[in-house]
């Protein structure tokens, strides 16, 4: 057993770069990955969880308290994989263990019997015959407990959410208990369900007369033009493209047909465009609809009003003779033809509408029967209320107020058929498990068979719901045939689940334990847990409960008597539990969730940390994953941990996000997730001296920054990763006091941490031997240069792409009336780089940077976001109304004079100096302006920006003259220019200009 005094491996070292590489790669792995069992939001990569668990479970062989018997067994175990491990010294043995952790993080080795057995043997060598218990109170998608089972540990996973707990039960209990035979049985029963569904749904999805199989129906919602002389139907279409493959382009073309006194009609044809210009723009953008007939624009409020009258407008309206008279309009049908490759497109026929009418008739009969039965049991179609969450669930403003409204009539009939067939699977124990697994397959079909999905014109597939963590409006939508064999269909869903079942069955060494539980009231007794490892929610980042209701309402109908699909805290609640859910939601729905504010979240997290401290054994270890990018989020987390009695003993940032992920397109969630390793703080922990803490802090931060940068960690990831090591100093004490006995609070200490990180960063990017000799590396350049350098340094990204740390977590998931794809008009976004104001303020204040002084000059602050103005927007400030060309002439002829005379004409108190042209290209300066006292002196950054603009304008002679004057002035100009060149993102216009400008410097 590991002695209490012995450090765990994760407290002393960790293979950051290797684990990060495998974690990022894992995001693109689909086949056989447990994540394909069912969608869950913000899953942790298995690679990171597996590696961190090994670091938490294994002692450091180089620690003097490490048992000798453990080291003997480690040499024996690792010698099976690595030549040379058998005779390793203690220090080398640590390196071999770290190599094993990094290698085993590889997905390809996660089920390799050699590595799998070695991992389990190492854990057994450290903990003896009794497996250590790993607990995750916010288990969600189950990455942490699954990896605990893979390593031979016991796992206890809990969550408040019933959908999460069903996923956990299947993955951690059902699959390990029944093994590969479950996959075989699932394949057999799944095939029977599909065969029966094909019979029952045949009349709703008929084949074409030529034998082609329709696989998707492309619909558009309809509003009426309200122009008095028009009244045409406006099909709400984002794009008229059907397929945008380079070698096979298809699109819709429309014409307006007028007949007599009737409203104009819009008719379509399918054609093959030779150029993109041949395809008309869509009819709807940002909820504004343009009439194809009269070109009048219908404002958003009228679009919403009309669609509200149609309950979202996804269903067809028929008259008594089965003729379409309104509602959604079918634009095209996508088919597969026997013996031919690729998708084919055709216009709709009366037969297509007849199939929809048949589905509506079937659905009405089902609902009528339910009404006649006295409404016994659940309504067959989900009638639970759908919340209006501004910016996240906007569909209710278009009349979709019930969860069932997210599905068209034929989709409802199909989903009811599948749910009923799953519910009818036999009643034995094993078939009860089969129903649970089959219901997860239904979840994947639901994602693609709804009226908020989109047709992906590049891959010619249905892009299902939850491409982002929200439910945006989709004006036109594909209705997929749910029994197709490609992505999103039942066959594909069953195969995904089958592969995941096989992979989990191979990985899991034992059966886990699952329970619906509140993390703030953990069900386990005191001092029973070896490892408390969790990834908690982050304020209002993701509304898990409301998102999961999309699946929950159908799972209840497929598993009507399942004990886990009820709210144990409120049995009358028809949806998932929300009152106790640790998610700040008051801003989304203040009427329902007034109590779920910031204080509620922070107190709940504090209680959860206290519960973790209570259940942990005295010799146990904890780990908390955190990826929040606001300083308030970090302070709340660390304050909760400190008050709950935890001491930070390690901090490891692991890259977990791909740079190209959807959320990274417009904002920058951190590329890394910081894993804070912690232990229970001893009851007799000493009181710390504030002066001693401050003396130790700079070296700790400096050493850590150097280590992290060597591992490829950059920018904001590096900033937040440094907070953990800094907290190791502070949190080891029961409290920290100044010389006069005043207690230093965590917030005050964190301000010092930010100051040290900022100073260290500036010394790295701006410091020189000369500046260091003056003992003023940070103050060697003016405030604006320091602010710009820190801004760009913070924006550097671990994944190699500079990204704006622009919006807060809630905004990353927010949507507007339309979640546009690449084909539609993109949102206009101001140029430049952005950081949240809080991050900028944290750096600026302790370094003596006065932010208001630079507002409108190099930064612009709006709605809590600070934008670093791009150089091109400073042209007027630097050169005035007359522009760079005139100024360049002046510089060229007056290079020995004070450059202040032409810089900042817009900001100076006495407008200086107004440069004017005379005849024959001569230049003059207004004498009165030159004599006046300038309000502001041009800074080094101003002169660098001026040089960049001269470079952009091709003013070569003036640029050389300016550079020569700056070289004579001193080294600061070139030092700053070179520093900024290293900081600006590769490929950016600013870097290009800087590098080109520096080529003009005489050597």
Automatic annotation (TrEMBL):
Q: Which residues form the DUF1156 domain?
A: 14-63
Q: Name one Pfam family in it.
A: DUF1156
Any signal peptide, and if so, which residues?
Answer: none
> What ranges does the record list as Acidic residues composition bias?
809-823
Q: Which residues form a coiled coil?
A: none
InterPro entries in the record: DUF1156, SAM-dependent_MTases_sf
Q: Which residues lie within the region annotated Disordered?
A: 804-827
Q: Which domain of life does this protein belong to? A: Bacteria
Q: What is this protein called?
A: DUF1156 domain-containing protein
Q: Which organism is it from?
A: Desulforudis audaxviator (strain MP104C)
